[in-house]
Structures are given as structure tokens and as C-alpha cells.
Amino acid sequence: MYSKLVNRNTNDMKLGQDLLKRLSVQMYSYKNDNQIFCEILAYAGYESSDISMNIYANEEGKFLLIQSKDGGLSSINLSVLRDINLGKSSKQNISFMGAGSRTAAAQWTKKSRVEPAIFGICDNKNCIIYKCEGDLGLGIVDYDGHFFKDSKFPVNQHNTTYWILPWKVWNDAEKEDEWVDTLRSHLKFMYNSRLTSGSLAFNFFGEGLQPKNSLFQNPTPLKLEGGSDISTNEKLEFFSCFQNRSIEKINEPMAYKGDIFQSFTNWKVSMKHTRVKTKFGDQNNRGHYGYSLLITNQENNVQLYYHMRKPGYYTHYSEFVYDDTCSDFRQISSINFNEEFTFSFEIMTVPGNNISARRKALNDEYKFGLPGKDVHGVRILMKGKNGSNFVTKNIIGKNRGLGNKYGCIINIELNSEQYKKYAKPNINRNNQWDCDERIKEIGNGLYDFICNGLASDFYSRLQKEEAKRKEEEKKKKDLELKLLEMQKLKNAWEFAESKIDSLVVLQSFGRLILANYRVEKIKEQIRIQKEEDKRKQLLLEQQKERERKALEKKKNDYHQRIKDWKDEQESQKGNLYIRQTQSLIDTGIKYAGKPIFWIGRSLIDRREKRRDEYNCKNPVPEEDRNEKHHNYSCYDFKKSEDKWKNHMNKLGWNYKDILKKKGKKVTGEEWYVATFEEIEEELLKVISTAEKDYKDLLATFKKTLKKELDYYPDN
């Protein structure tokens, strides 16, 4: 089908001025297929109530058909999509229409290895077709009419936008199933709020997406690993022990019954600047101001301050002055920041490797990674009429410093006005949807507060409750054992008294009972000692296991970092080539006395393409068919090519320089006059130097990494 379009003219894409002025970015390359399809679906995610992804097959092959009921292509959308300036803004979306989505579609199209590399966007009336070529890798195909309707594609629904992409040819059915499964999990996570609330219907290859686990709605009660519920019927008064952690109580402490492992959704936060209060009651403006969070529980209207940073000037006065506008007192041109944000959070782990059952379920469904490691972070959401959508998502899956021992998820929600002020102006795809730095400060402070405050405080309370429960059980068992022993002695005495009349015999029986009692006491002491030895052995094994896990983590981090570094170096690897034809030999001998060689760099071997050119309607001259082409693989081939050419220029081998000395000019490629052995010798020197540089850099990186991670595999 696309074969009709192969020879059609195209208009190559250019970077639009809007994109250059507002973003100042290079064309973005997406790390994986999850990112590619999240970018393509970005507009549908905000505007559509119904999305579907399906495979459509015809006589030409298979195609990926993405359909979103978002109103179709408006006149402004069409103007932007048909404009060769990539990145022109439609003023209707959160980003620049097509700057990311079309480059993501182009990246998928190229990855599919389907020829020709073409994809399209359309509704039931309009059609735009793109070919993956040109300087920016995109060109608009000149076509009159509706190509996809003419080709019998199912694109007839009103108010619907269609993306038609090639479907990748999978050689391995298991890998295709794994890819589909991973993408399904990612989409369920990204659209969790809208899918669970019912505001979005998403049909994914014939399956209606519906997450089993809602991230922040009605979570199931959790259990600590390896045991039953640990909870208490008594009130757990939070924030009562935080004076030493720069947390101030205001009014009365908050109280909560039972298990903390559930979602907290009714909270607000705002940032304040602080100054030390002098003895005269005003603020001390020496030094830097401090940061403080005002955190409010809306259920009982209890407020507290959490000090992220104290004022830079310290004094013996302990009270603070709060600046509600979050601007410095002495700044001439300060920007007020008195916003209050709604946030929700969920504590996922507490100290001691206590991983919640809910966390494990999330890992299984959304494929985050190893339980206890990859589900914590701060996310910024935009709350709209159709629910909440991600603005930032870069922290999920990474261990923050505070997330090694504890884990929590925090959602900071922006209303439409807050989104316009603090998110939209800062959006930058290269930064994975950035937002205002002050909001990030709030997120970092909340993360610190919840992980180091609430989680650790609750865990200490759990430990006390558990220790108290065990102590009571032990006392109960000891009492029962004493009563049992007393009853045995009483029964024995009554038996002896009833059966023995002789006082002597009675005394002998008493001595026998006393001896038996002493034997039992010795047995009890031996049993207690064995239990103590067992407890110590268990503690020792637990310590060894913790050390083993820590070493294993260092090992995994070390090898992963080495792999990432090697992958980066491999991306800079390519071919340097030496090419010669009969025509170049004859020309060089005629004018310079030696043959001419054509040299350069290439990521791929282009010989096959030229051989195809020899068989076209206008073949190259006969003398150029006896081509000699030698490829040499090289690290950092761009830098190596420059070194190679510069040295040969110094040797006086440049054909242009030779002709210039003779008063002649030549245009075109850089040619060099020498023997093949001379040019190759200089090339091999450059390749050897590049390989040595690679090995030296690798050795230096390993040495630095070992010191950074405190991991020495050789030891």
C-alpha cells in the first residue's frame, strides 16, 4: 500500500521558531517503547474519553492503529501538523503539537524496520502522511485526498483522531508477548487514576485496561512480611516526639487508630520562609532565611510546621517569624509564593525490611522492579475535569537517599491555575516534564518528613507494642507453669498423706519430691540457655544476611554502571574507510604522481547502496566499477577521523594543497595522495590510540567507581 508513496515528493521538516525560543532543545530520542507510546498518547490522555490500540492487517502487511475520541483534528491542529516547521505551537495543548509525538512516531517507525518508513495521522476528513527522511528525519508527503480512506482503512468515526504506524516484524513470539505485557503494565500505571475512576476507557489489543490495584484509592489493609497484622487499639499520637527533629506541635497532637499502611488523602501543604525572632519581637535579618513547610490535616484541621532548613544566622532565641509570601525580607525584587497544594501519600515500607503486601502487589502489576526497592518518590499531578495526569514522573524507579531504608509515594496535585503558573512554563521533554523548582523543594521536604518522621516513629511504636505483647504472653505462660507445678506438688502430697502413716516414710517421700524439684530446675536452666544460644545464632545469621544483601547491591550497581558506560562508548563507535577507484588512481598519477584515495567516516558500510546505484538507469563510469573499499572499526570515530586527516594534511598529502601549490583548484571531497600502505599506516596509528584511550578510560572509570561504591570485586 505505502509503495504508492515511495516516489512522492516530500517537504523536509525544520525546527520551528516557537520550539527554538521556548524550549531550546535538540531533537529528543526516547529511551524505550514505553516512553515512545506515552508521548504519542499524550494528547489523547488529556482530551480523550476513549482510546484504543489495535493491529490492522491488509494485503500490504500489519499496521498499528491508535484511535482516540478527542474531537478529531481541528483547523489549528491541521495547520500545525502540515507545517514544515516542527514545533509550531497550536496553543491548545500542554506542549508543542507534534514536536515530541511525531518524533516519537518516527523513532518507532524506524525501529520497525519496515520499508518504506512511513506513518500517518488522520481523522474521518483529513489526512497527513510523513516519511522518515531529511535532516531532522521527517518530511511531509505530497498527497491529494484521503490516503487511508482510499486504502480501505477503518478511519470513518466522527470526532476521532487516528495514528497509523507500521507494526514491527517480530521474529520471536515470546518477545512480542513480553513487549505487549510490559507496555500494558506501564499504561495501566500511567492512567491509573482515570482508569480506576472510569473517566477513561482504554482498549488495548482487544482487552479493556482496568488496574487491579488503585494507587491512591481504597487500598487494602497490609501485613508486615512474615507475620500477622501488627496494630494496636490504642491511639497512636503522631508528632509528639519530634521537637528534636525540627517539627513543632500546634494545638493538639494528631491521633490515628490502627495500621498506618493506608492512603492519606486529605492533606495540604504550603512553603514558608523563616527568620529568627529577636528579643524585641521583630525578625533578625542576618544570614539566610530558612525553609519551613506548613502541613495541614483537613480532617481535624490540625497544623504543624516542618523545618527543612533553619535560618542561616543562629541565636539563642528559639522562636521563628514566618513569611507567608515565601519571599526574603530584604530582597528588592522578590517573587511571592504563597500557594497551598493538596497532597496525598502512602507509606510503603518502614525500617527493618518490612515490605507491605500492597507494595508487592503493585510491583507485580506495574512491573516496577524488586519489592522494597523501586516504588518510592514524589510525583506532580495536574488535576483536571477528567481526573489527574502526570506532570513529573522521573523519580519513580530510582533510589533516593532517604528511600534506602524507608519508602513512600507522594502525589502533589495542581489545580488548573497552579498548573499554568508552576508547571506549564517549565515543561521540557528532555527533563521528563519538569516543573517549578519551589514545588520540587516542597516535594523533597514532604518526602523527608514522611520517611524520616512518620515511618520511623510508627515503626518504633510498633516495636514497643510488639515487645509489650510478647512480655505479657511470657508472664502469662510463666504463671501457668508455676500453677501447674504447685498443683503437681499438692497432688503428690495428698497422695502420700493418704497412703503412708509412718512419719519416717513421709519424710523420705518429701526429700524425694525436693530432689525431683531440683532436677526440674536444672532442666529449666538448660532449656533457657539453649533458647538464648538459639537467639544469638539467629541474630548472627540476620547480620550476615544484611551484609550479603548490601554486598550484592554494590555488585549489581557496579556491573550495571560499567555496562551503561560501555554502551555509551559503543554508541560513539563507527567505521573509517579508505576508498579507491580506477578513475582516482589515473587522476592522481597524472597530476600528483601517486594514486588518490577517498577517506572518511561512516556508521554503516555503504558499499551495497553504491552497487545498487551501478545497476540503475544512469550507471557510473566503467572505470569506477573496480572499486576498492576498506572499512576499519574505530572507537570515537568522529575524533579519530579528525586526527587522521590533520596528520596527513601536515604531511602534505592533501590533494587540494598539492594542486594549490601548482596554481590549480579542485572542488568536492577531500582526497589524499599517497600509497595505500602509507595511508593505512597512519589510520592504524589513530585506531590504536583510540582503542588505548578507551581501555585507559575504562580502567579509570572502574577505579573511580570502586571508590565511590566502596566495592572491590578483586578482594
Structure description:
The protein is α+β, with helices and mostly antiparallel strands and 715 residues long. It has four domains: 2-208, Heat Shock Protein 90 (2-Layer Sandwich); 235-456, no CATH class; 470-567; 574-706, no CATH class. It is built from 17 helices and 28 strands. The strands form five sheets. Strands 13, 15, 16, 17, 18, 19, 20, 21, 22, 23 and 24 form an eleven-stranded mixed sheet that branches. β15 (264-277) and β16 form a beta hairpin. α12 packs antiparallel against α17 (676-709) and α15 (637-650) packs across α17. The longest helix is centred in the last third of the chain and has 68 residues, at 503-570. The radius of gyration is 37 Å and the shape is extended. Mean pLDDT is 75; it is low at 21-26, 92-97, 219-246, 249-261 and 393-404.
